[in-house]
């Protein structure tokens, strides 16, 4: 079954798009004058990435991947869809690559489609979700200590500590409830939205008020705010590794792309710096990615030389 997407195809940059148009005009003129067969652009150098524009992690991973692929002469397009459709579309070949596959955070989607997918490489490790508190909240370091500090986080006075979260039914909220049950905590999850959660965290930090909140890496919050994760001795939260995935057999058919994404990596600290530039400084993701390439030119050049056997 062919998957239909709500998608927005985006050209990598206006100069490349203009060049492609110019080449097309030249080919058309050549065919008209010489009577030759019609020709089309080299589709073997065109790559489609699965895209979730509302996810910072996908936006920046895609921007970095696109900047690197341009170094190898590829044209990059986006297919926009929600996460389940992206896995399905990649498995079925409607999408070439998805560069933001969090395992185990996205395990349910891998379980559904993983037998039709392959992993090409690791973008970064240490992607983690958990509970955070401000650095000025002292005297404990672990989730298992929270029963002794209910009053500190009981803003509405109902006798239950509050865990601020970003959306009912989200993975973070679901696992937060599992944490409450695993540790038998007298706490409740307070859901809002990502925007509302971050605004509330900022407001309480400004007032130097305590809070217990969902936090995750990579995210600019760890560049901008004095916060820390609480230890999780029971291991309910699991750190994820972020992979590049493609349909089964893709690497055999596209050895250069497979070689590129075996090397492609954005270390967690570098990725978080990119999230700060994007979310806090409100810079363009393509500009951020190009700057990242320029800052790590020796690394990128080494990738190019390794892939091309130079």
Detailed description of the structure:
- The chain has two domains: 178 residues, D-Maltodextrin-Binding Protein, domain 2 (3-Layer(aba) Sandwich), CATH 3.40.190.10; 102 residues, Glycine betaine-binding periplasmic protein, domain 2 (D-Maltodextrin-Binding Protein, domain 2, 3-Layer(aba) Sandwich), CATH 3.40.190.100.
- It is elongated.
- Strands 3, 4, 7, 8 and 9 form a five-stranded antiparallel beta sheet that branches. The protein has a two-stranded parallel ribbon with strand order 1-2. A two-stranded parallel sheet has the order 5-6.
- It contains twelve helices and nine strands.
- By secondary structure, it is an alpha/beta fold.
Characteristic terms for this protein:
310 residues; alpha/beta; D-Maltodextrin-Binding Protein, domain 2; five-stranded antiparallel beta sheet; 9 strands
> CA-to-CA gap between the ends?
42 Å
> Quick one: how many beta strands?
9
As for the number of domains, it is 2
**The top level CATH class name of the largest domain:** Alpha Beta
Q: Main beta sheet: strand number and arrangement?
A: 5 strands, antiparallel
CATH topology of the largest domain: D-Maltodextrin-Binding Protein, domain 2
Question: DSSP strand (E) fraction?
Answer: 15-25%
Radius of gyration: 23 Å
Structural class: alpha/beta
Quick recap:
With 310 residues, this protein is an alpha/beta fold.
Topology:
Elements: H1 14-34, E1 46-51, H2 56-71, E2 75-80, H3 83-91, E3 97-103, H4 107-113, E4 117-134, E5 161-165, H5 171-183, E6 187-191, H6 194-206, E7 213-217, H7 221-224, E8 227-229, E9 240-247, H8 250-253, H9 255-263, H10 268-279, H11 285-295, H12 297-308
Parallel strand pairs: 1-2, 5-6
Antiparallel strand pairs: 3-9, 4-7, 4-8, 4-9
